[in-house]
Specification:
CATH superfamily of the largest domain in chain B: FAD/NAD(P)-binding domain
Radius of gyration of chain B: 21 Å
CATH architecture of the largest domain in chain B: 3-Layer(bba) Sandwich
Shape of chain B: globular
Helix content of chain B: 25-40%
Order of helices and strands of chain A: EEEHEEE
Number of helices of chain B: 12
CATH architecture of chain A: 2-Layer Sandwich
Oligomer: heterodimer
Order of helices and strands of chain B: EHEHEHHEHEHEEHEEEEHEEEEHEEEHHH
Number of domains of chain B: 2
Largest interface: A-B, 27 and 24 residues
Largest sheet of chain A: 4 strands, antiparallel
Bound molecules: flavin-adenine dinucleotide
Distance between the termini of chain B: 24 Å
């Protein structure tokens, strides 16, 4: 079980959270300007490193806020 | 209840680990089921024997050692019917082909429906399967109860059984015997099996990958074939390619040995559990992936807890069983729950990739070994793998198998 540090409520069990995947994937500023390759990249491709990873979580069972943490995907060590 | 087949004796040493040579015609990265089956078919069907399978751990110690061995072909779309049914056909003759026992046991697979949308989706899949010549049936709750008497098909459970799809030719096999069978057959045909040899990088020159760096030295390669399952994204990144793949922990568990009470496989997407009883008697159970990505080969306990709660709801007598052992593998999940197979042009003209089988690639092992080797040998994608090209994410020709593959493996 991961322990996730919510910036508003403190560290809680993973079961209180919803996972949001890679952080910093912004909706394209000009979607119509994207070609198929760039659009596919935005829709389908996310980083998948065996390393430190910056990711989104939502504290659905409490404050319902989205936030970002760093987690090592091999050791599961978390940095708020 | 059918009597359980008798376990054969443990086989003697089947192959000798090779010292890697300086160069090979084909270097296969990843010694799981897919890498070994591909090597076997390259050698057996295409006369390409100057082949190395390089494996970072011990042979077939990745997902091949960790899966719950469910074999079926009742997926929704035509492309899936093509590859999974081809594989199922090969499973039916695999023992003769490899000359080893693999304990393929066609005990049938039930996919339970617990609500109206499950029923609709299940019937749609049965119809689609029948149009593709795949044995698929829709069963009423009473018929389900006959096949699996320990399953509670009354209205009592929180998620009552409203029916199920049933594929009689589906079943299970002994995963280690399958891997060892392919390894021995490939070894006898001259393939080098190199374990304890991690690929750490690639040399790309002139639009080709000319050599592979490993923890046991540099190996030149005519063709490079990636079969690294849960580490595909990490390897592709070393080749400068970002794959639409996310690597998740996937867990399974077994109970202690029990008397035979279940002689078919039962899966439920809605309540997130599936169960079969192994030949020795342990209940083998699995569920869906852990939601987050991870390479630690361990999942969270709450996933196991939820899966057990669902199992006990469906099978009240399982409340008395004990969990003996849980484990996890790392599975490479794609956005449409279908694999990625084909040339990896962005990495080089001589690079092929086979990945993205996620939670369900064991069943494909004989089929993909056959057609992937055929593709590599002829330098073009075999008809059965062509739909699985990486380009489908750009063209939009996705093969969405979430209904057939979300929890069911
Ligand atoms: C718990 C669990 C249950 C499952 N249940 C089922 C099921 O019931 N039915 C089904 O069909 N499928 C199931 N699967 C999925 C199935 O196991 C996989 O899809 C399939 O095994 C993948 O192909 P493979 O056998 O080649 O993979 P693997 O056995 O994982 O082989 C890949 C190999 O590549 C090696 N490798 C990785 N990186 C490197 C590197 N850099 N250098 C050298 N070698 C490397 C790994 O060590 C590994 O041995 C399950 C998986 C898990 C984890």
């Amino acid at each position: 079980m991961l322990r996730i540090p919510c910036p508003h409520c403190g560290e809680r069990d993973e079961t209180e959270f919803h996972y949001g995947g890679e952080a910093g994937v912004d909706y394209p500023a000009e979607p119509a300007a994207l070609d198929d390759v760039a659009w596919a990249e935005y829709l389908f491709v996310r980083a998948d490193p065996a390393d430190w990873f910056t990711e989104r979580w939502c504290h659905v069972s409490a404050c319902r806020q989205w936030f970002t943490i760093d987690r090592h995907t091999v050791s599961d060590e978390v940095r708020a | 209840m059918k009597p359980a087949p008798r376990l054969p004796e443990h086989p003697p040493r089947l192959w000798k680990d090779a010292e890697p040579r300086k160069a090979y015609d084909v270097v296969i990265v990843g010694g799981g089921g897919h890498g070994l089956a591909t090597a076997y078919h390259l050698a057996a069907d295409h006369g390409i024997t100057n082949v190395a399978v390089v494996e970072k751990g011990w042979l077939a110690g990745g997902n091949m050692a960790r899966n719950t061995t469910i074999i079926r072909s009742n997926y929704l779309w035509d492309a899936s019917a093509g590859i999974y049914e081809h594989a199922l056909g090969l499973w039916e003759t695999l023992e003769e082909r490899l000359g080893t026992t693999v304990m393929f046991d066609q005990r049938g697979v039930l996919n339970l429906a617990h609500n109206l949308s499950d029923v609709r989706e299940g019937k749609r899949r049965v119809n689609a399967n029948q149009l593709n010549g795949i044995d698929a049936h829709w069963l009423t709750p009473a018929e389900v109860g006959k096949l699996a008497p320990v399953l509670d098909v009354s209205e009592r459970p929180r998620h009552p059984v409203h029916g199920a799809t049933f594929q009689p030719r589906a079943g299970i096999a002994k995963h280690d015997y399958v891997a060892w069978g392919y390894a021995r057959a490939a070894y006898e045909l001259g393939v080098d099996l190199v374990s304890d040899c991690e690929v750490t990088g690639f040399t790309q020159t002139g639009g080709r990958v000319t050599s592979v760096s490993t923890t046991r030295g540099e190996i030149s390669a005519g063709t490079v074939v990636l079969c690294a399952a849960g580490h595909s994204a990490v390897l592709a990144e070393k080749l400068g390619v970002r794959l639409p793949v996310q690597s998740h922990p996937l867990q399974a568990l077994v109970s202690e040995l029990l008397e035979q009470v279940l002689d078919t496989v039962v899966m439920s997407n809605a309540v997130h559990v599936y169960v079969s009883q192994a030949h020795k008697g342990e209940l083998v159970m699995g569920a869906g992936v852990d939601p987050h990505i991870g390479y630690g080969r361990r999942g969270s306990f709450h996933v196991v807890e939820e899966q057990m709660a669902a199992a006990v709801e469906l099978f009240p007598i399982f409340a008395r069983a004990h969990v003996l052992r849980t484990w996890a593998g790392i599975v490479d999940v794609t956005p449409d729950a279908s694999p990625i197979v084909g040339p990896l042009d962005a990495a080089g003209d001589n690079v092929w990739i086979n990945c993205g089988w996620g939670t369900g690639g064991f069943k494909a092992t004989p089929g993909i070994g056959d057609v992937f080797a055929d593709s590599v040998a002829h330098g073009r994608a075999h008809d059965l793998v062509a739909p699985y090209a990486l380009e489908r994410f750009t063209t939009g020709r996705l093969i969405d198998e979430h209904g057939a593959a979300a929890v069911a493996h």
